[in-house]
Every structure is written in structure tokens, then in C-alpha cells.
Amino acid sequence: MPLFAITIFLSALLLFLIQPLAARWLLPYYGGGAAVWTACMLFFQLMLLAGYSYAHWLTHRLSLKQQRTVHGSLVLLALLWLWWAGSAVSAPEPSAYPLLSILSWLLFLLGLPLLVVAASAPLVQRWFAERFPMRSPYRLYALSNLGSLGALLSYPFIVEPWLPLSQQFFSWQLGFTGLALLLLVLLRWQWPKASTSSEAVAAASSRQWGYWLSLSAAGVVLLLAVTQQLTQNVPPVPFLWVVPLALYLLSFILVFNREHWYQRAIWLYLFGIGLVLALVLIHFGRLFDLYSQLALYLLILFSGCMLCHGELARLKPVASQLTRFYLAMALGGVLGGLLVNLLAPALLNDFHEFPLVLLAILLLAVLPWQRQLVLWRKVAWLGGAASFALLAIWLHLLLNQFTVHQERNFYGSLVVRDIPVAGQLQRILIDGTTSHGAQYLALEQRQQALSYYRPGTGVALALQYRQPQLSTSDGTKNAGRHFGMVGLGAGTLAVYGEAGDRIQFYELNPAVIRTAQQHFSYLADSAAIVEVLLGDGRLVLQQQLQQQGSQQFDVLVLDAFSSDAIPQHLLTREAFTLYLQHLHTDGVLAVHISNNYLDLTSVVRNHASHFGLDALFFHTPADSQNPAATEWVLLTTNQDFIRQEAIQQLAGNWPTPLNPAIQWTDDFSNLLRVLK
């Protein structure tokens, strides 16, 4: 019995430990967006389906002797593959189809080992049921989810803060080696004495299969939708991935460990409260601080998962149908992942799957039992569902009455709105929930910079007061300046380009490029020569350094926000090393650190100290034309630039004390330390 428990616990630990590890590894190559996490989730759901399908086939089609031979061979092959692939695989190469490239890279590196890990839970439970026919295997399923929960909680608090990324994967390889040995021991010494795999198993009805699939898919869609909502304003780091997933797993642990721990009436009422909170958060979430948003979203998630998984636990079959039941749940999880990753971006121009799945869960929890409800309860719940749908539609139409353009892709959701501000019409670009640039629609004003880039801000001072280079590296005269902009937005910074200047924008999201070119005129109206390069800023700059050498920028601007957050890989020491290699000796690095939830001042100041740069802080308060305050940091060794009167007058004091311990590198970048 202990060997079964240890094996299933370790398999679950490894399965859910590799999820944040792999996503953390892939983030820098795909712009640091939350979509990387949802893509990784889809891969693991696919591997769960493959593992459960394999387990179902193995236990229902093969004899015990054949099962031992086939699975033992697969375990050894996966072990050899993992150690070979771990040393042979190259870095991922982003393509025009990022979801496909992520899935193919993960499949090559982890496909075979994860097939073994994913199949372990149903296989070990089935073998346990055959060896101990009088004991329920579903307690082992609760233990499996407990192992998964332990893995998730350990990653942001133990693994990520203390182990470099390369050592994290090596530790996982060692863990898989231990699991392989445990499985081989089970196959050799704890094998069932008699086989029940050939007995006839009654097929579940199509209605039962449909309900299993629907409940499982709804839980996964809710998990991914809540994670998307949480990471629109804060970098999609493991902490904000694992907390929702931990609650998702906790609901499985509770409902499958003790039947009486699930009381449908209690969770249904809590979920009803969550529906009201969801409408508030969707449209007015930015009025709440991060911790309040986190608590409210997690309440919605947990109550919804308790309903979905509680109903699944009510419908769990006898042990002989165990692998079929898990196969249905895995298939439902894949369907949920495909809905979020493929169908939603293709069919919906915003994150509408969040309110839709809330409505679906309410109906799944109420409709199958509606005949047992008294009339007033039936009217109350179905009327509440209708009211939620109508109110969500009304709020959406009200908010989008000023919308000019809206689209969604792998990297997020973009909206262009024409909104009157202080009596004048402004066109605003919104990425997720955050403005990424604005422009006056009046012809005579449209070359006036607005928002975070208006005159007097740190970046405006850098672009206006950084004088042209006297000569280029080869000694020829050059009257123009060369600017680099990591992040395009609406293209506002192009207004600071003068005749003879060159500006290179680096933008990861092709939808942002189309939107800036088609709905704003900053790029077309600029006096400078403007070039827009598609790709992650850090990766493209690295390629340029290798192929063309240093760009010798007079000013390099770091403004690559994903909604309200800068991807972490753009703020590490290694990233700053690259930026400085592309800067002219007297150049200026401008870093945008405006953020509602993160204090990035110590991150940037410690980089400045490490590289021997002077760092100046600029805070520009909101005004009637620009409702957002803005914060920039300028880093340079150019004392002539620093001593200019405008720079001295507008540079301000740092808003918080320096924390020397906050040192971000590619291996270590702890977000928890910079939360406001």
C-alpha cells in the first residue's frame, strides 16, 4: 500500500511541477505574455488525455503479463529519451504560429516522459483496485491531487526563488528517474495476483459521457479565464499561475476524498454571489487593488470548481470503469483548453469566455436537478441566469459604444475607442485593460503627443534633449539621431522624430502594428525615417547585434507592456547588458515603469548601479487632457545631458527606498518582492 501511495504522489508532483517550469522557460521567447501559460496548459491537457487513453487501452485490452512488458519497456524508453533530449534540444524558435511552435517544442522534449507520468495515476489506481479489491481507489485520486497541489505551491516559494532555471529542469530529470524506478518495482514485486481487466464493463450512457465532458471542460475554461483576467495587469509569473491552479486541484481533493465535503446548495449560493462580483470585476476591476482582485477572482474560481468537480464526484462510477471516467475528464479538459486557445481567439474579439463559462456552470449545476427544485427556487435560479446574461450584454454594449476597432489574437485583446476627454475627442488604444497610447482626432492637434509620452515626461525629455552624435563610428558626420523603441503601442513616440532622424520600433504583436498603421497617424506623419520590426524586442536586438553589430542608439526606449505589465525577461541584468551594447557611449536608456501594482524602481536602480550608470526618476502627474500619471527612469553616463536645465528641473526624488536585494537575472526574478 505505501508503495502505491508514494508512486502516485510522486507522479502527480512531477506532472504539475513541470507545468510552471516549462512555461517559465518559454516566456522570454514569446514576449512574456499570459498566452504562453494557457498554451502550456493545453499541452499538458493533451498529454493527460494521451496518458489516460493509453492507461485505458492497456488495462482493458492486454493481459497482466502483456501490461507488465509494454509498460516496463515504455518507462525505460522514456527515461533514456528524457536524458538524451535534455542535453540535445535547442532553444525554441518562435514562428508565425506561436501556439503550434510551443506545442511542437514541448512534445519533442517532454512528450514521452509526460505520457508515462500522466498514465501513472489511472494505472496505479487500477492496479491497486485489482490487488486490493475491497478498498476504494478514489482515495488515491485525492492523494494524487494533493501531490499536484504540493508541486504548485512549492514552485513559486521554494523552487523558483532558490534554484536557477537550468538546475530546475535537472532536478525534474532526477525526479522522473525516481518515478521510473518506483514503477519498475511495482511492476516486479507489487503486481496483482489476479486479473480483472478482461471482465465486461458496462458502457456509460451518452448522456453520462456528455455530462462528464461538460463539467470537466467548464472547470478548465474557468481556470484559464480567471488566470487570463488576473494576468492582464501583472506579469504572468508562476505565482499568479499556480494559485488559481492550486484552488482548482484543491476542489478535486475535497470532493473525491470525502463525499459529504461537497454540499451543492452552499456552493451554488456562493457561486451566485460570484456572478455579481464577476460583472463588477470585468468592467470596474481597475478600481480594486491587486489583493482585492485576487481574492474576488479566486472566490469565483473556487466556488465554480467545487460545483463542477462536486457534480463529477457524485457521478463517479465503480472501480471497473475508473479509467473510462478519467478518460472522459481528460477529454473534457482538452476540449476546454481548445476552446480557450483556439476557438475563443478565432471567434471572440475580447475575453468573453469568462462570463460565458460562468453562465454555463450555473446551468450545468441547476438544469439536471431542476425537476427536484420547488417552483420558487427554480424560478430564482433560472431567472438569475437570464438576468446575468442580459446584464452582461447591456454592460458590454454600453462600454463599447465608442469602439472603432477590436480584435484578439494569441498575444491578447486590442480595442480602439474614440472618447471625449476634456471636451476634445481622443482616439485611444487599449491593450487588455490598459491604455497604450492616445491621439487627438482633430487634424491640427494630431501630432501632439499624449498619455505616457506627452511633453515633460521622462521619455519626451530624453528624445528632445539628447543631442545628435557628432560623428559615427567610422568618422563620417551625422546630423541625425538614431532611436530604438521596444514596444510600439499607437506609435506616439514617432512625433519626436525630426528630419534626418531614424526610428526603429520593435513590436511582438502583429495586431498592434496593423492597428497603429491603420487607426493612428503618428507613424505616417513623423518627419523621421520610421521602421517597424516584428518580433520580441530582446530577441530581435540580439539577432541584430550578431548580424549587424551595435545599432549605436542615441536613445533606446523600453516600453514593451503587455496590458499593464512589462514582461520580466526585458528587465533582467542580461537584457540590460544587451541594451547597453546597442547604445552609443553617450546614449540614454529610457525605461517606462508606470504600474498600478508593481514597484520597479529598485530593479532599475540596481541595474544602474551594477553597470555604473546614473539613474534619474521622472514622475508626471495626471492632468485634464491626460488622465494617467506616468513614471520613467532615464539611465546614462552622459553628464552633459544630465546637467541640462530641463532635466535638472523635472527629475524628482525616488518614491521608495532602494532595496539592494532585488537583483533580476534570467535565472532569478522574484515578482513577490516588487508588489506594491
TrEMBL record:
Membrane found in the keyword field = yes
Tell me which UniProt keywords the record has, alphabetically.
Membrane, Polyamine biosynthesis, Transmembrane, Transmembrane helix
Membrane-spanning ranges: 33-57, 69-86, 98-119, 140-158, 170-189, 209-227, 239-256, 268-288, 294-313, 325-348, 354-370, 379-399
Gene3D superfamilies per UniProt: Vaccinia Virus protein VP39
InterPro entries listed in its UniProt record: SAM-dependent_MTases_sf (IPR029063)
Q: Does the keyword Transmembrane apply?
A: yes
Q: Which PANTHER family match?
A: THERMOSPERMINE SYNTHASE ACAULIS5
User: Mind telling me what this protein is named?
Assistant: Fused MFS/spermidine synthase
What organism is the protein native to? Answer: Alkalimonas cellulosilytica
